[in-house]
């Protein structure tokens, strides 16, 4: 069967027209709109949250927010274009999807860099190191993981602690009843209300909830550490140029000493909303991050 040259040309043109147009990169969108959308999870004290006692100003604040604002300032200089910041609230369950479907350009929160998550998004160099622990009521006899066999426990949906908890429960045949919480606050409140015997989460977040509770003396954080978690900023998967600019910005923030200044501000000084000092001296892991900013830090996968 023979086809005319015209028919082939028309057929190819029709096929090309039917294909979706190649979208520009995320950095192209940022340049065009002169706006960068920063995603944040609320109540992740002191990384990203709003002041619950200042309803006139609900602008997000926190350690990760300060790092992101510093990155944006450096991006503005690199692009020779002042960028407007727009904040977009996300949850722990939908934050990666918000990056993937273009709702946000940079995630400024409490998120660990893992190989599994790298399939969906890219990560900056690490900006913080934390560990998974659990919180109980101080009057509880529960001290170790072994004490939680057959107990009601909780962690927050979409987080690493929940993935670790589920795997540990299965591997060690602990028969714990795991109750997923939708938010960090809900998970902590499950312990407060006696609906769960323990809440598993990153220890620095647990410290923030306890410090801002009505009766901090009513809670106790486990002494055991279950996993080191390197926090980083998350950004779109497909944009290598944006990745390079963010990486350069984080490297400059660390080497200039500004990351240590942000640490002092949010972990060793009084912070909103109650002007409570978390009094968390820099860990050896964080000090190592400062001394070796080029070292790759990726958490173990549990998903």
TrEMBL record:
GO cellular component: extracellular region; membrane; outer membrane-bounded periplasmic space
Isomerase recorded as keyword: no
Any single biological process term in GO: amino acid transport
Top-level division of the source organism's lineage: Bacteria
Domain called Solute-binding protein family 3/N-terminal: residue spans: 35-270
SUPFAM superfamilies: Periplasmic binding protein-like II
UniProt keyword annotations, A-Z: Signal, Transport
SMART domains: PBPb, PBPe
Domain Ionotropic glutamate receptor C-terminal: 37-269
Pfam families listed in its UniProt record: SBP_bac_3
Record-given protein name: Solute-binding protein family 3/N-terminal domain-containing protein
Upper taxonomic lineage: Bacteria, Pseudomonadati, Pseudomonadota, Betaproteobacteria, Burkholderiales
């Amino acid at each position: 069967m023979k086809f005319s040259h015209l028919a082939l040309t028309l057929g190819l043109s029709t096929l090309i027209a039917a294909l979706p147009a190649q979208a520009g990169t995320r950095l192209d969108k940022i340049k065009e709109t002169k706006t960068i959308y920063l995603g944040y999870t609320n109540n992740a004290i002191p990384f990203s949250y709003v002041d619950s006692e200042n309803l006139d100003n609900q602008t997000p604040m926190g350690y990760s927010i300060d790092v992101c604002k510093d990155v944006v300032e450096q991006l503005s200089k690199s692009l020779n274009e002042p960028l407007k910041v727009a904040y977009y609230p996300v949850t722990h369950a939908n934050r990666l999807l918000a990056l993937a479907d273009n709702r946000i350009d940079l995630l400024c929160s409490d998120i660990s860099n893992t190989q599994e998550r790298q399939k969906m998004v890219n990560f900056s160099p690490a900006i913080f190191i934390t560990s998974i622990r659990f919180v109980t009521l101080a009057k509880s006899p529960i001290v170790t993981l072994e004490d939680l066999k057959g107990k009601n426990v909780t962690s927050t949906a979409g987080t690493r602690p929940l993935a670790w908890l589920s795997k540990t429960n299965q591997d060690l045949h602990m028969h714990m009843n795991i109750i997923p919480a939708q938010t960090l606050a809900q998970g902590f409140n499950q312990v407060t209300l006696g609906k769960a015997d323990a809440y598993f989460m990153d220890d620095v977040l647990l410290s923030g909830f306890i410090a801002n509770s009505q009766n901090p003396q009513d809670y106790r954080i486990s002494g055991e550490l279950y996993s080191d978690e390197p926090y980083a900023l998350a950004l779109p998967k497909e944009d290598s140029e944006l990745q390079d600019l963010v990486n350069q910005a984080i490297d400059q923030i660390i080497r200039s000493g500004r990351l240590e200044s942000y640490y002092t501000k949010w972990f060793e000084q009084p912070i909103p909303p109650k002007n409570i000092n978390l009094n968390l001296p820099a860990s050896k892991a964080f000090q190592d991050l400062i001394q070796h900013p080029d070292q790759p830090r990726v958490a173990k996968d549990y998903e």
